[in-house]
Each structure stands twice: as C-alpha cells, then as structure tokens.
Amino acid sequence: MASRKTPILLLDGGLGTTLADQHGCVFDASTPLWSSSLLLKSPETLLECQSDFAAAGADIILTDTYQASFKGFASEGSTSLEQSKEYMRSAVQIAGQAFEKAGKGNGKVALSLGAYGATMIPGQEYSGKYDEERLSAEGLRKWHQERIQVFSQDANCWDQIHIVAFETLPMLPEVVAVREVMEGVGKPFWIACVFPGEGTELPDSSAIKDIVKAMLGGPGSNRPIGIGMNCTKIGKLDALISEFEIAIKEMVTAGEVTEWPALVLYPDGTNGEVYNTTTQEWEVKDPNGRSDAPWDERIFDIVSKVEQRDLWSSIVVGGCCKTTPNDIGKLRKRIDQHW
After folding, report:
1. Distance of alpha carbon 150 from the chain centroid
2. Taxonomically, which superkingdom (predicted)?
3. Domain-located, residue 187
4. What is the spatial distance between Cα 226 and Cα 315, in angstroms, rounded to a whole number?
5. Which residues are annotated as a binding site?
6. Which domain holds residue 22?
C-alpha cells in the first residue's frame, strides 16, 4: 500500500440522475425544482437515495438544494415564503440523516448551491445565458445572498452544515458574486465551475487564469478552501487541472497566494452522453468519445496523478450526473486499497 501525500475526501454522486434511474422519479418542465421537488413530495425517497451514497463510502453528502429557489417552490405547491424556507432547510437534516441511516456517524454535510442558471427553465448553468438582471456580479450577489440567508439565519440548520458548495458556475461575474456573499459568513466553502465546451474556458469565454484569480485573489475572509470543477466530461480533467495548477503557481510566485486550496473534482459519470436542456433527455452525441475503462478507474487514475504532484492541500473527489452509488463504492475501494 502506497503512502498518501495528499488527504483525499470522497464526495457523493449524481443525485438527480440516480433518483430518476434507480428510484423511478420523473423530472421535467413540470418540476422546475428537479430533485429538490422531493423535499415536498417524497423526502423518504430522497433519504433512501442519499443513504445509499453514504453506505457506498462517501465522506461528504451534498444537500438536495442545487436547484432550490423561492420561485421554484412556489410553482410546485409551497404556499408561503416561510414554508419554502422550511423545505430548503429540511434538505440539510435529510443529508445528515443519510449518514445515520447508513451507520456512518462521522460524515460531513455540504450545502449544495447551484448557479443561478440552474433555476432557470430551461436550465442555463451550462451556457451562462442569464436574464439581464442577473448578468452582473451585483445582480447575482443579491440573488445568492437571499438564498444563503435561508440557511445562515437559522442557527440550528447552519450548525449542521460543514461546508458550502457553490456548483456549476458558468461565468466569471458569478464567481465574484459568491465570494462577496461569503465575506464574513464564517463558513468554509468551495467553488466549482463547469466546462461544457471543447476548450478549457468557461461558457462566458473566461480563461482559467482569470477564473482562478477571481476565486483566490484579493484580501478578506472570503477565500474558498477549495476550487475546481464539476458537471464536466471526465476526459477534459487532466487539461483543466493542469491549467488550474499553472494559474495557482503564478499566484504563489507573485505572492498573491501563500497556501494551496483543496482541489474539488466531481465530473459527470457519463460515457459519451450529453444532456439536452431543451428536450431534457440524455443523448449520445459522440459515440467515438466513449471509453471502455470504467468511470471509477478513470477518475482514480486522474486523482493518483494529482496526489503524486503533492501540490493541493487536499483532494475532494466524487461524481456528478449519472454517477451512481455503485460507482462511488468502487472508487472508495480503489482509494482504500491503494493508500
């Protein structure tokens, strides 16, 4: 067994796709909350699914709040702002209960907060094509501030959250916005961006060098403890990680950063499939892009190379869309057997 240089924490997998594929849940235009609709309709199904990820070996469970919004809850039957807040906060409790149900008492709960575009119909977190009011950092800051206060203003709920996860951010102004929101909040957080195109830039064409500077630059208490990528094809990770590392090295050399953050890495569990936000179906766009190697082997190889370079303070690795509890269990086994 090799000696581990960098701490590794295992995240869960694709909640919405697992609920659809293994629990018979249907998400479409009539369910703008996507998987968060289970907070109203079937919290016991949500608990069962999340406990499967905990039982598979996940150290961190993300709350079912990725697409949560006041507008979404109102459209699905919530009768008041206060009731919507209670539904959102219940997701934190359910994530914690998932560890208890799986007999794992030391897991961490991460508050999942998706991009503003994740609450749009159709979803725009892969494009960054937001409405005019939310195109600026200020407009996005107000929106994210309102949502995070649902959790931070309830002391009991806030105490159950170990880390805040800003996910699938497609544009530079939104990175700036969430950092402003976290100023003085006193809770560790990470920022994960999405890279759906063929290149290594964000959907708004921002380069990784500028993204990393926005994530880590400047003074203040709002520097994330982790940065990285999610909801991205696994075949792109090596190139993306390399550019992230180059950007951080430049900041270290310039004295802008003194400590490396954690690398946060949870790519899709897809194998050539691409989600069509208009039809809301998974489609095989590029049959030649499929791999014979299983997902857990591919992501483990990537993590192994990162770990050997011994740059990041730690590695948080898991899966996004189409990643199942079985995939997470296999990755858990590989990690435990190797280190």
Report:
1. 19
2. Eukaryota
3. yes
4. 9
5. 231, 320-321
6. 8-338
